[in-house]
Amino acid sequence: MEKKTITIHLKVWRQKDASSRGEFKNYLVKDVNPDMSFLEMLDVLNEDLIKKDEEPIEFDNDCREGICGMCGAVINGTAHGPKSGTTTCDIRMRMFKDGDTIVVEPFRAKAFPVIKDLVVDRSSLDRIMSKGGYTSVRTGGVPEALSIPVPKENADEAMDMAACIGCGACVAACPNASAALFVGAKVSQLALLPQGRPEAARRVERMVAQMDEEGFGACSNHGECEAVCPKEISITAIARMRREYWKAMFK
Ligand code: FES
Which UniProt keyword terms apply here (predicted)? Predict the structure, then answer.
């Protein structure tokens, strides 16, 4: 049986570069297979634009499996779109109805300048990571099981925090454009494990200082970051970052 296709009206933010003025442009995408991903639908539109000798829409992507953190757009006002716990590349067109209008914009934040259309420069997050989001101590080979006891709850929570893919949706959703959930997750994943403790104080001090330097806003516990996080990271990460920060200040 032939699959029913849908027609979508798109309002997409087009912007040549960071210093140009952007604007929304309207497009009609016909014959959209509901099983297509959101990015595949944009691919179809881009093929059409190329055939018409128009500039295709630039958007970031890599794995298209929800694991690399490259994709990201604000879809109908929500970072990564209407489905919770899902990246833009994992949104399926069956979420929309025939004839729907979908508004697509880049992640917006001072620390994420637009490169082109939906592509933003998120290297500010990389610079925060370079200040301490790693362990530099030599840990040697894989230790014997239980040679470093780690409470199960800590191991589980560290794993949850390590799920952060650094997409920046938390920043885009926050009214203050704060990167606190991102930094909180990165600080927490190491703070919860023994291997991360030796550098914990230096790590949190340097990462928080870099976060401020990059122009991210302060966290006011709004909670939007948690609501849009495709990896469903809890804002308890932010509380832990604060605790680690104060511990570092008074050490
Ligand atoms: S393209 Fe990798 S998470 Fe979406």
Answer: 2Fe-2S, 3Fe-4S, 4Fe-4S, Iron, Iron-sulfur, Metal-binding, Oxidoreductase, Tricarboxylic acid cycle
Ligand 1 mean position, distance from CA 120 (Å):
14
The per-residue DSSP string of 159-200 comes to HHHHT-----HHHHHSTT-B-HHHHHHHHHHHHTSGGGSTTH
Nearest atom within ligand 1 for CA of residue 62: 1
Domain 6-115: CATH class, spelled out:
alpha beta
Model pLDDT for residues 179-223, shown as the tens digit of each residue: 999 999 999 999 999 989 999 999 999 999 999 999 999 999 999
Q: Residues spanned by CATH 1.10.1060.10 within the chain?
A: 122-137+145-250
Measured by CA distance, the residue closest to atom 3 of ligand 1 is: 66
pTM for this prediction: 0.94
> How far is it, in rounded angstroms, from Cα 62 to Cα 188?
26
Superfamily of domain 122-137+145-250: Alpha-helical ferredoxin (1.10.1060.10)
